[in-house]
């Protein structure tokens, strides 16, 4: 268990209590999915504690954790007496609950919000679970020994990923900095983790995603999240820049 974390001034403007200081604890490190909530909280300038348990280590099967999350999966976020799992849902919750005028990860206008939702659902369904996680389940060097090694399935999943990534290629062709234009949102968090995952698996990414990914990797919050996703240490967010 990590020690206590420091805190910073936070103004949650959506939860009805402008003076509230959130009591956040994030369980989970070490995967492309656990990095997502770490990253979101650094983007939002939130102080939080971390319980750096990993997947398939036995740590998710303890009585303590199973009581919190019967699915025995990571990540899991505790916000006071509220609990939420699933990385994309955690990121969406944080974006909705703790975005401020100074630090926001979610669009306000109804149609921009709908476009943001579309990106989030597309990334999680088509790029992550239908493609990359299928590869993970059936690669010999990943979970194949558990679920069955299937090179043809892995190849087909990789090809499907490349086909679906055309949506990203077309969107970024207009020169936009991020998926929602000039504004970074939590949809970019989801996409970046999938792009990094694809590169690690040798799938490759589309041409327009290369400069996009280079820009994202330079974000201080991303770099802090990468570090937070590994070490057994308290998580301290960077202060907002003037």
List the helices and strands and how they pair.
Layout: E1 24-27, H1 35-43, E2 49-51, H2 63-68, E3 76-79, E4 82-85, H3 87-98, H4 110-138, H5 144-147, H6 151-164, H7 166-172, H8 186-200, H9 209-217, H10 220-228
Helix pairs in contact: 1-3, 1-8, 1-10, 4-6, 4-8
What would the principal axes of the Cα set say about the shape? globular
> What structural class should be given to the helix and strand makeup?
alpha+beta
Share of residues in strands: 5-15%
Structural Rg: 18 Å
Query: Helical percent range?
Result: 40-55%
Q: Termini distance?
A: 34 Å
Number of DSSP E strands: 4
Strand ordering within the main sheet = 2-1-3-4
Mean pLDDT: 89
Query: What is the succession of H and E elements?
Result: EHEHEEHHHHHHHH
The number of helical elements comes to 10
For the report, how would you describe the main beta sheet? 4 strands, mixed
Uncertain stretches of 5 or more adjacent residues:
1-19, 233-237
Notes on the structure:
The structure is a single chain. The protein is built from ten helices and four strands. Strands 2-1-3-4 form a four-stranded mixed beta sheet, covered by helices on one side. The chain is 47% helix and 6% strand. Helix 4 runs parallel beside helix 8. The N terminus is likely disordered. By secondary structure, the protein is of the alpha+beta class. It starts with 23 loop residues before the first strand and ends in a 14-residue tail after the last helix.
